[in-house]
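Late entry, written up from scratch paper. The run itself happened at the end of the previous shift, but nothing got recorded in the book at the time, so transcribing now.
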Amino acid sequence: MLTNLGARVSPLVKIETDAGISGIGECHHDSQGHGAKDIILNVFKPILEGEDPFDLEQLVFRMSTNTSFYGGNHGIATHAVTGVEMALWDIIGKATGQPVRKILGGGSHVDEVRAYLSSRPEDMLNEDSCAEYAEMVENGGYTAVKVDMLRDQHWLRSLENRQLSNAEVDMNARGYQNLRDALGSDIDIAVHCHWELNFDSALRLARAVQDVRPWWMEDPMPIAYNEQWTRLTEQSPIPILCGENLYRREDFRPFIVNAGVHKIEIDVSMAGGLLEAKKIADLAETYYIPVATHNVAGPIATVASANWAASVREFLAHEIFPFGENWSMNGDPQILGYDKELIKDGYIQLSDRPGFGFDLNEDLLKEYLLEGEEWWG
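Output as recorded:
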């Protein structure tokens, strides 16, 4: 069913079993959620009915091959696969009496997951504004932030070219220095790009902000791998990261094996499932590449993704957005019926209850149903 939990439509998946156990998952968004819902109800449901959820990898293979007509291993088809795969993991955890992080890929390394706050000062060029932002970060207990680069163009609405002007380079050098001065040396700062620069501008930006010692520069160039990524990684004075728009192992492989990045991030809610994301992280580890997450999903996928993160040894931190009064881009955490505060002292808290550990607040969740949507029943 389709819900509006945060800034985007969140398609939620419920799978019921004849053992009386049900699992809940969340798909990565498409524009209105209809694509994922159509695929799940009309392609996946006949595949799943009567099957054993413990045969998860075989079921994922069958779902993936049966959506080759609808985009194959990318896009909405893979969003749908991931939402179903999450629900299967929730079932497996409940059936075994274990949290998912304890049974995924060898078990858990941690019981809480470091978060990085994806946000920005109101005006990065204003020192007072940066000081206010630093106070908010400190009050939340966060130890890392990701902040958008400054441009005269907007990456989403008005991107006309991939070239930074001298003024933009200088503006970013000043803005990120203000941020470092306000936050101090102990807070990690990631420079957030949106695949909007060419090689020359990406390298100029990296050199302009190097004195701030950024944690990484994220997605500076267009999405697909080519040799320019390897050149940038070789020449950049700061770490280069990409991954938020990549899907399965096939997408990540050339970046990893060709040293096209220093670090990767995986959006678990779109990568093809928790098990697929674990395989990507394992491949990265063999090349000594650490892993973070990208996360613009609702609270269900956020908790599922954090369970995955706890099973990854070389894990850096998990993206989270600021929570106001029961709301953020990640949605309302109160729908979870969670037995813990979701974010505490800059860490995502993981439940010890079986599965993903939530017990949905159905009365509250119904308030977030899209108009015309019917409850699961």
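The two ends are 11 Å apart (CA to CA).
(Scratch paper discarded after transcription.)
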